[in-house]
Structures are given as C-alpha cells and as structure tokens.
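Run log, item B.
One chain of 145 residues. Sequence copied directly from the ordering sheet:
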Amino acid sequence: MFCPIMLDISNRNCVVFGGGKIALRKIIKLIEYGAKVTVVSPKIIEEIKELKLNLIYDVYDEKYLHSAFIVIAATNNEQVNKEIYHKSIKKNLLILNVNGKENSNIIFPAVKKEGQITIAVSTNGTSPAKAKLIRDNIVIPKMDN
C-alpha cells in the first residue's frame, strides 16, 4: 500500500531510464518540481532533447544509479524495467516502474494545483485514468490567503 506524502525533490538527482513519450511525461513532472534530471537511453526523442537535460546515450547500467534519489524505469523493455526496480530497491532508492505498481515503491498521483493548494488523487496505481477523471472534476475554492 502506498502512503500519501509530499516530497521535496528540488535539486535532487532523478534518473530516468528511457527516452520516449512515456519517459517525457515523467520528466516533465520531475522538472516541474525542480528536480535535476538525467536521462539514460540509446535513443531520445526530440521533445526530451529540447529540455536541455543531462542526456546519456547508453543502455541501462547499474552505475547510473549511484547518485540517484528517484529512479524512473521507462524503457520499452519490461525485463530491463524490472531489473532497474530490483537494483534500485537494493540501494534503498525511490523507484517508479512505468510497467506497474508491482515493481514500484512510488507512484505519481494525479495532481491539481492552484496557488498554494495542491491536491493529489490516487487509486494506489490501480486506475490512473480514474484518478485523472476525479482530479479534473475537483473545484478548489478561491481563498484570500
């Protein structure tokens, strides 16, 4: 079971394995919250290249975990993503595997943010679409402070 928590990742090293569209969505979320992002992948889409991140054109290698705070396994190979998960767990890292919550110890909730109010909606990884639907229907009242 996942514990809801707010985590400061500003200036923290986050390593994303994978250079495609799914990786891009996670990268954007990490950047939004101030993380230092390194992308490791033999192929990287243009949208990621345009973000001017630390790009490493390579396949997964455990050596890239050494400075990570959060790891995202977003390769197009489920077996590699599982290996990234197992190595990350052994190093006590926070790991999100895009292939599912079974090989993750963190998940990214659907978030609605207005000013200083942040609301996160999660189905504990069972239905991201349902979490997004609920998030999109949340109305945050305007407040003076």
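Observations after the first pass:
- The helical segments are 21-32, 46-49, 78-90, 128-136.
- The mean pLDDT is 93.
Flagged for discussion on Thursday.
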